[in-house]
Amino acid sequence: MNKKAIFVAATGQNVGKTTLCLGLLSGLRKRYGTVGFLKPVGQELVKTHDGHEVDKDAVLFKEYFELTSPYTTISPIHCPTGFTRSFLDQKVAPESLLERVDTAWTKLSSMHSYMLVEGTGHVGVGSLFHLNNAKVAKHLGLDMVVIATGGIGSAFDELALNIEMCKSQGVNVKGIILNKVLPEKREMILEYFPKALQRWNIPLLGCVPFAPLLSRPSMKDFSNLFKAPFLCGEAKAFRHFEEIRLVAGSLESYYDEMKPNQLIITPACREDIIIATVGKHVRQLHEKKEDWQGGLILTGQHPPRDEIVHRIQGLDIPVLFAPLCSFDVMKKVSTFNAKILREDTEKVQEAIHTVENHVNFDLL
Predict the structure, then answer these.
(1) Are 142 and 133 in contact (CB under 8 A)?
(2) Does residue 172 contact residue 212 with C-beta atoms inside 8 Å?
(3) Which of 64, 51, 55, 68 is nearest to 22 (CA)?
């Protein structure tokens, strides 16, 4: 197996694979100098400034780490809507897909002393078009690291399925990294999970604790979610919130429970709530010289009146208008899984710091 590269896969979506890869690439750079990044198969696509559709992680890694390779080399295969149907209709040849991966791999591996290859979803993703993670890792001759969410029983069960697929393809699993481990359970998991892994003779490479910031969406995330432009405060687009609160009751109740760093969701017609929020920010700034760190998502069929918008524009509070009822907005916000954006440097740096401090790079 290639000892100057590693393939990173996960047991499913939202496990934190991209977060782990940010920290792994940063840590590997300190040991190998030039480290390349490859995302062979991409499913969540964004458009680059030159009009190419590539995987979002390719953009994140290229721009944050200032990688010199072209986007299309870092992300050779992407799966837009209808891709699987085109494949089943024999409009896409499996050989052509593998050739793209080979071309990208040859270019990147020749330029770097170490390669980090990020898979897509769980180990079996891509099986329909003959490019699941295990098959790609086998084709490239790479060992695999598998990431699972923290725990013992559930994490082990999810790993069992993915490791069996690796075995079926003849892929060596070099190690396991547990992510989002609750701090109060971390010592217990560090003691017992390696015992569970003994049956496969696979080491535990890392036990990464849950970092609250990494799970908190920013106002930019919500702007993208609702396709809602900022009414004001776009300079604070990457503000994150400790609490999200739906306010639809009395003004008195709202006053009693006001806290800093809250995202308030309220109808645009509740001008009393809006004015109270603005007033609190003003008082905090003038009396205590502190930023109240709040934000507003206004809801309903009609946007706020110009007079209200003008009133809040005097402060640097990030404010959005989502033309939905408050219940629907709250539901979408509560179930939203935020991905790390390139511009969200606070979150990127938190990811790197957390991973680097809790992964055994020597064992990796």
Answers:
(1) no
(2) no
(3) 64
Q: How far apart are CA 49 and CA 60, in angstroms?
A: 13
Distance CA 119, CA 42 (A): 8
Check if the beta carbon of residue 147 is closer than 8 Å to that of residue 120.
no
Q: What is the pTM of this model?
A: 0.91
> Which CATH number, 4.10.800.10, 3.40.190.10, 3.40.1390.20, 2.60.120.620, labels domain 219-334?
3.40.1390.20
**Phi-psi map region of 142: left, alpha, beta (phi>0 left; psi -120 to 50 alpha):** beta
Q: What is the pLDDT of residues 166-221, one digit of tens each?
A: 999 999 999 999 999 999 999 999 999 999 999 999 999 999 999 999 999 999 99
Determine contact, residues 23/352, Cβ cutoff 8 Å: yes
Task: Look up residue 88 and give its two tokens.
Answer: 């089943």
Burial of 51 (0-12, 13-18, 19+ CB in 10 A): exposed
Residue 339 confidence class, pLDDT cut points 50, 70, 90:
confident
What confidence score (pLDDT) does residue 149 get?
93
- Please answer whether residues 160 and 22 qualify as being in contact, where contact means their C-beta atoms are separated by less than 8 angstroms: no
As a whole number of angstroms, the distance between CA 66 and CA 87 comes to 34
Check if CATH label 1.10.3210.10 holds for domain 2-215+342-356. Answer: no
Domain ranges, ordered by start, for the chain = 2-215+342-356, 219-334
**215 Cβ contact partners less than 8 Å away, ≥ 6 residues apart:** 338
What digits encode the pLDDT tens for the residues 315-337?
Answer: 779 999 999 999 999 999 999 98
Same CATH fold assignment for domains 2-215+342-356 and 219-334: no
